[in-house]
Amino acid sequence: MRATFFGLELGKRAILAQRAAMDVTSHNIANANTEGYARQRAVLSATDPWCIPSFNAPVTGQQLGTGVEVTKIEHLRDMFIDEKIVREYSSLKEFQAANDLLKEVEAIFNEPNEATVRDMLDKFWAAWEDLSVSPSRAELRTNLVENAQNLAAFFRDVDLRLRRLQGVPDHAYQGSIENQLADAVTQANNLISQIAAVNVEIETAELGQGRANDLRDRRQSLIEELSKLIKVDTDWDSKGHLRLRAGHELLVDHSFAFHLNIVQKEAGLPNTISVEGAYPEMSNKPEVASAVISHTAMQRNLTLGVEQTAQAHQTESFLSFFPVTGPLSDFGVTSGTFVINGRQFYLDAEHTTMAGLAAMLNTANLNVQAQVNEGGKLVLTSTQTGTAHAMTYANGTSNLFTVLNLQTKVAARDAIFTVGGTRYVSAANVVRDAIPGVILELRSPGVAQLDLRPIVLGGKIKGLLQVRDGDLNSLRDKLDEMAWRLVAEVNAVHRQGFGLDGQTGRNFFQPLTSDDVNRPFKDAARNFALMDHIVADVNTIAAAGGTLESPTDRLPSYNGDGDGANAIRIAQIKHQPWFNGGKANFNEFYNAIITEAATKSQTYERQYTYRNDLMVQLDAKRQELSGVSLDEELANLLKFQHAYNAAAKAISTVDAMLDKIINGMI
């Protein structure tokens, strides 16, 4: 038999259920514009019925409903769409960061415009041509110096702005890549800590078999924010706890947070991102070879076999006696010309000592280091390793090398190694092009296993590293190569000419040196400048070519102020193919630099536009399921309100019936 107050219980359950449904609906309306919020829904279910025996069914009885209850607050999310959004955010922010940076690079080069490197070069060559017509005119010499200074200053300025954009680990300019990288890592570490903390809150809130929907929304928003900085993968352990990984490294293991660090292996190599706090060793035998990952996203384990490392060519002189002081003519060297590494030099043996010869070679951008040791021997060492950089030398009209009797002390040698079964020959022991985005350092013969699994596979940090270590380095290297070649070729010709004072053998630009044996042009644009004597006295500009007055002369002589032959030779340098294996002159090489920057910028822009369109589609798809529709929620609110009112009416009716029974039947 049913209880007397059964109807009241039914009504109470209905009121509580409809009230809970209205609360959930109100919560949806309140968060209609909250970013990251996913719509919730109260799931109503009938409570277990009662069985009431009857005359027709004395055993099983008839079932009578006992009302309604809220079984759960459903969270309307599609995990598949959420995972796709997390992944696409990483790609979107990677290409957005790279695109923004390449736009800045294009602005630095300022092409097409009048105030550009190309414009400065054209004016520089034109000044030499003008001087060749009237080499004695002071205003033309002054004009040449001004144009040369403008050219050098522009190279330095472009390089300075590229370096400031790039930044350096110990001096990150505001807005530089290094500065943005440091900020991004700080933001990522903050998000990692927050995610670990929310994991604990979720576990605590769900101990009673409930579901912490709002906390899960917050965690999903934090994960998406983190994915904008660095690509992350999510998985769940056996207890259902969330784990986050960047590459193969854990960032979050439920309540444990593992922070990112910016680390550098050694000076001259790019810094990278590590989870452990120290630079990750990627070789099981670093004494054989090691690797530095700069900007690759490929996951690889490779075997590296080193057959031999590269060596630099070194020679030293062998004479019957070695005068420490005194002119070269004292031990049989004649005046005249000689050639080393393809460069011709004039040698005045009667006025040049061994130390003077070494100084002459060291200031000629030959990629040769010359020194006189304690025993008086001349030691020549190539500043670059490999057989391609072995020194070559020959007598001209001077017998210099016959007398010096140079003997090989260390033979030039290439590095030979295999990676993944492919054999490589490299002139350098630091190899940057065998594996894209990876710098190999070869140290000794042997076999090493390389674990090339980077942590940064996407996100803003990946875009920053890609531009800093890939695109910007490539553009800066080419600009440096162009400046280095300009200095080397102009100086080589200028040293053979004569100034108005009749002197020869002087450089026009300051000679360039590098501390990187594999990149002789390193920092050439940064150090591009005129010689002090050129700036101080325009008469030292060697516009005259000189002449050999008789067949027996070994050195040319200054033949007057009207000689502009050397200026013509310098002006013609612009037409010669110095770059890309003898296929490009200065203008063509510079055009290639600008084209490379523009092409990379357009590529990043296309990728960013495509990813952005994809994100719009994914967000629209998610909004279909998880977004709050105010019209729908208001309709639900009215529906639950009517049900609530009806339940209240049912309680009133039962109350009236009970009042009749209790008070009206006495």
Automatic annotation (TrEMBL):
Pfam families: Flg_bb_rod, Flg_bbr_C, FlgK_D1
GO biological process, one term: bacterial-type flagellum assembly
Coiled-coil intervals: none
Subcellular location per the Swiss-Prot or TrEMBL entry: Bacterial flagellum; Secreted
Domain Flagellar basal body rod protein N-terminal: 13-37
GO molecular function: structural molecule activity
Keyword entries, A-Z: Bacterial flagellum, Cell projection, Cilium, Flagellum, Secreted
InterPro entries, A to Z: Flag_bb_rod_N, Flg_bb/hook_C_dom, FlgK, FlgK_helical
Stretches assigned to the Flagellar basal-body/hook protein C-terminal domain: 624-663
Chief location of this protein within or outside the cell: other
One cellular component (GO) term of this entry: bacterial-type flagellum hook
Residue ranges occupied by any Flagellar hook-associated protein FlgK helical domain in the UniProt entry: 102-276, 456-509
Alphabetized PANTHER family for the sequence: FLAGELLAR HOOK-ASSOCIATED PROTEIN 1
Family statement drawn from the similarity comment of this UniProt entry: Belongs to the flagella basal body rod proteins family.
Designated name of the protein: Flagellar hook-associated protein 1
Organism this protein belongs to: Candidatus Ozemobacter sibiricus
Species classification: Bacteria, Candidatus Ozemobacteria, Candidatus Ozemobacterales, Candidatus Ozemobacteraceae, Candidatus Ozemobacter
